[in-house]
Amino acid sequence: MATTAAARILSLTQRPRRLRRTPALRALVRETRLSPEQFLYPLFVCEGEGVRREIPSMPGVFNLSVDEAVKEAAAARGEGVAGVLLFGLPAHKDAEGSAAWDAQAPVQRATRALVREVPGLLVVTDVCLCEYTSHGHCGLLNGEEILNDPTVELLAKAAVSHAEAGAHIVAPSDMMDGRVGEIRTALDARGFDQTVIMSYAAKYSSAFYGPFRDAAGSTPAFGDRRSHQMDPANVEEALRETALDIDEGADIVMVKPAMAYLDVIARVKAEFGLPTAAYHVSGEYAMLKAAAANGWIDETRAMMECLTSIRRAGADIIITYYAREAARLLA
Ligand code: PBG
Q1: Looking at residues 58-62, what average pLDDT do you find?
Q2: Reported pTM
Q3: Residue 37 C-alpha to ligand 1 middle, in angstroms?
Q4: Could you tell me the CA-to-CA distances from 327 to 67, 81, 91 in Å, in that order?
Q5: What are the structural domains of the chain?
Q6: What b/e string do you get for 212-222 counting C-beta neighbours within 10 Å, with b at 16 or more?
């Protein structure tokens, strides 16, 4: 009989469900909050004008010419997003990736335009060679070997050219040894002592970068990135990598990817206490989009659950292709 449901009341001292009963109570005791001020929005900048070309494996993400990138960034800023992270698609690639430090290349031009035209927007630039080399590797090659120290020199040149264009933050994603220190020294020597370095401190060799390599045309022509990006099995090593980058002058440290590495985010944040970023990468985004397109998950809820989990793990900053969608939801 239905009447028995209310009849018996247990005498419990703790009833955790009390605080989950209404939206107002749940909001009152919520431990983790998201704000678009913590989001960085990656943009892929290409040559040309009026170009807005959707990336097939990343619905809602585009290759954008500088003029379109300015519109996209202004819209994102209008929705409260803190800043953009720029990747470049140069017109020409060569063995050393010389477009990486070309003042007229898409990232440098976009940086100047964004700084001028979108007030309050943080402009962050990716520092790596893989988008610029004809072979798609992150550095100079000797045969099939990536040379560390000569590559670091080139990365420092790229970082300086971004700072000259007005970038607020440079973000080396190459995982060469010693690059943060060299970049710091090169920036300081030219008077860019206020340019922030956000280092990809613990960047794993991950299958989840697949769609990005379509977007940036940076798939290596042979081999893979395991000689410099980290083994997904390691976390103690992530702490050593992070400690090195901090010693060399990193202001912000990053863990990448995010969802499969929440333990790494938590350890890095707990151990060092530095502003910590996590990159919710292309494959993580593509999986949600694909499942949602099939009607298999509720995309909005899954997106917010992922972003909240990344924050809960300890990330202060989230780099995500969902920045605008999430910002609109939080408004
Ligand atoms: C390298 C770089 C990559 C990403 C950011 N910077 C690709 C790689 O290491 O192969 C991946 C980002 C993503 O998957 O969203 N410049």
Answers
A1: 97
A2: 0.95
A3: 23
A4: 22, 7, 33
A5: 33-330 (3.20.20.70)
A6: bbbbbebeeee
